[in-house]
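Q: Mind making up any chain with structure tokens?
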Amino acid sequence: MPIGVIESLDHEARGITRLEGKRVFVDGALPGETVEYASFRRKPNYELAHLVGVLSPSVARVKPRCEHFGVCGGCAMQHLDDAAQVAVKQRILEDSLWHVGKVRPRQMLPPIFGEPWGYRHRARLGIRQVPGRGGMLIGFHERRSSYIADIRSCAVLPPHVSALLMPLRELFATMSIADRMPQVEVAVGAKSTALSLRILEPLSVQDEKMLRQFADCHQIVFYLQPKGPDSVYCFHPLSNSGLSYTLPEFGLELDFNPSDFTQVNHAVNRVLVRRALNLLDAKPGERIADLFCGLGNFTLPIARSGARVLGVEGSPALVKRGRQSALANGLASNVEFTVANLFECTPASFAAFGHLDKALIDPPREGAIEVVKALGDDGPRRIVYVSCNPATLARDAEVLVRLKGYDFAAAGVVNMFPHTGHVESIAVFDRQ
């Protein structure tokens, strides 16, 4: 078996070594380690490999907390010390900025991180009835597989949600449509926990009775999703406090539905919002855009500063939720929401937003390339860019710096998803 020295980790937390000039990605290997590996896929320019043995372990290697680590695909870095995970993600961010965009920030910001366990307030768990593997399974997919991992607990889910996994298996196994429920989505709010059950056939009367009893016993709210995401509706109890999360520093509470996009990690999100607002330095009277604003995670905190905020989002449902939250939090007079497809942004459509002193951009993984290309000479003098994909941030940063004349003032990593290879970040661009 080949032996290699691991140089670094890639964006999927795989160790990288080289064999005759070809990169080899080794699952489970850490930087600085000498490992023995076995390739399971060979391509002309790279190979994928399993870790066979660690001949010289990293000082940052730790024992994974979860007994399912290595099989379950929900986590990829539990074998790496928490602080080292943050350092790895910072390195991935810096490498992406330089190798993809050929840009470097003048300053690297201190990383944002929080509690690494029990943080995951949103999760999509697969459901599958597999008689040969213990019956009903509920969990994340296995690594590199469509199979559902046989997990009995989960260290990254809130403890009260992890404790529901086995009772849910027992419940779903007894339902008449046990083989017609592909997934359940978890959404934990400040006042309630919701489980949205995808159903491909109608429930029986007995199914409905069991769901109601389970919800009452475990103090959760069941939602049902018979078709697409827009079909989600509250099943039981109908009289519940609803889902919301808070931003106490700004005196805000934002309501959301189980199918709405919200940040997975509420604690880190609070720190991220604080950092973004400090970097944006919003002043009373300024007009600021929050692009890809969702339901107002940054929009409403910006409005608290006294600035006038334009929230732009492609989803009418999220815009409606943002307007409701602005009204409920006493900020309706400071905020304007509008629906627009920012992936089709043009110089003319961006100019139609009117004069903007500053902007915050928080796009999905695809980035905001059409937005940054649409900026004119009178564009915002400061842009705070929150990213969930270092590669698209780097691509967009190159346009901002090389073509639009912005100074790349600062960037830093945000560990929103501990124990995964997911890298969030925040960046600041200025121009006179």
About this structure: The chain has three domains: 1-61, 90-115+261-430, 122-188+192-241. The mean pLDDT is 96.
